[in-house]
Amino acid sequence: MTYAITQSCCADASCISVCPVNCIHPTPDEPDFGTTDRLYIDPRACIGCGACADACPVDAVFPIDKLTGELSVHAEINRERFSEIPASYPWGQPQFPRSLPTDAAAPKVAVVGTGPAAGYAVQSLLRSTDAEITLIDRMTTPGGLIKFGVAPDHPSTKQIEHTFATSYKHPRVRMHLGVEVGRHISHAELTEHHNAVIYAVGAPGHRTLGLPGEDLPGTLAAREFVAWCNGHPDMAADAVELSSERVVIVGNGNVALDAARLLLSDPDELAGTPIAEHALAALRKSKVREVVLLARRGPEHAAYTRSEWIGIQQRLAGRIVVDGHGGAGEVIAAAAEGSTAGLLRDLPVEDVDWDRAPAGDRRLVLRFSSAPAEVVGDAQVRALRVGDGSGSRDLDAGMVLWSVGSRGVRIPQLPFDEASGVIPNEAGRVQPGTYVVGWAKRGAAGGIGANRACAAETVDALIDDAAAGRLHAAPKNAKSFNKLLRSRK
Ligand SMILES: Cc1cc2nc3c(=O)[nH]c(=O)nc-3n(C[C@H](O)[C@H](O)[C@H](O)COP(=O)(O)OP(=O)(O)OC[C@H]3O[C@@H](n4cnc5c(N)ncnc54)[C@H](O)[C@@H]3O)c2cc1C
């Protein structure tokens, strides 16, 4: 029985490294690996050994006869990926992780952050060096966006935290939670106690558009809404009010889809997930009947990935419409099958009457070719004004969610590129002894699995510096570090 990869694939390539017949693609040395959001199994080559399913950290791989219900489409999605590709693949050159020469002293390494980038960096450090590792996070719960970003109705994706948790228990790893670098402790103090510091601090800020009214009560970032659903301690239980009939989400990437899906799902379906109690209670009482995904450009430029689109289409079956504004219907009808716009082929196209309040079943409306111009309201959002070059109109809404991207924030004593929102680096090296990984290194793009190769590159840079004697001395020990932390908190 052959296997297939399903929607929750994190593309970290753990499955590829254990496949004995090279049937999972793209592999890290194939050109589209850097842009794919998921991997596929070629059923013509798969021998059904199941090694990939055992290695998958997010439970995304199944024998095709076990694909039932929402998962059943994935057998065809895997097969289709290879329909125009020959059935045999040459093996790439074997690659072995670099390791620290055995005669080099074991470095003391601090890793700031406990999200996926930190998790993969720690795995790589444990495998390739004898480093003593100190993990630090400002939150009192580890996991970064696995805990507070990945939507609660994606439980199999959240499972990856268990993979990382095994390294947290390793005897060479110590963890300090509730410690913020730049507040409780400085970069200079970290370097006094460690030979190297790796920053895996993500991109906790969100981009803004600089529109009038952008900060009115009733507006927030879509990732903040998802964080509220995940019980993030920075998001008060009453931070979100679901008392209006329409919510507009600006943007149509995967985080926008997460927010829309959570707002429109049957709360009973969310009840068995790790959703925060306050969010579930609010969603049960929610008055929201319509969520509008607003995009500046046309359907051919939509930012969501195919897997996430298929997921929301299944969840909201029969409750998604395209607003015909801007010729969206014609673009979709002419789009090639499987293309971004082509995915919307089966949806009804309707000339939405925005002067009428939403009525009927809870639904999702996709509106394209409309740029947000202003948030209208006095003490609270009343509408989002949108324009398209030929004029403007108000879309009445009591809540506006921004889903226009995340960006890094400056950490005192470290360089920071304001334009790109990242810590400037070369292959992860900021300078010998200081490194960066994950979204703080590459910018806020890519799913969890993309951080695996990113972490390997950063750890390679650290190993090179360690082997060449370029790491700084760390005169103070772990006992002194613990004492310092106790004095600050
Ligand atoms: C809403 C949302 C949903 C997502 N859903 C998915 C999904 O379903 N599937 C998927 O593959 N990808 C998903 N992603 C993308 C994925 O979460 C990222 O690829 C990944 O989290 C980036 O990892 P990171 O470790 O760089 O950052 P993060 O996960 O953000 O981790 C950064 C860590 O650093 C800590 N930190 C920050 N500053 C400091 C400081 N000064 N001192 C101490 N600690 C600090 C933070 O508390 C945090 O724990 C989602 C992203 C978002 C925003």
Automatic annotation (TrEMBL):
Its cofactor is FAD. Its EC number is 1.18.1.2. It is an enzyme of class 1 (oxidoreductase). The keyword Aminoacyl-tRNA synthetase does not apply. InterPro entries: 4Fe4S_Fe-S-bd, 4Fe4S_Fe_S_CS, FAD/NAD-bd_sf, FAD/NAD-binding_dom, Ferredox_Rdtase. Residues 37-66 form the 4Fe-4S ferredoxin-type domain. GO terms for molecular function: ferredoxin-NADP+ reductase activity; iron-sulfur cluster binding; metal ion binding. This is ferredoxin--NADP(+) reductase. It comes from Saccharopolyspora flava. The lineage of its organism: Bacteria, Bacillati, Actinomycetota, Actinomycetes, Pseudonocardiales.
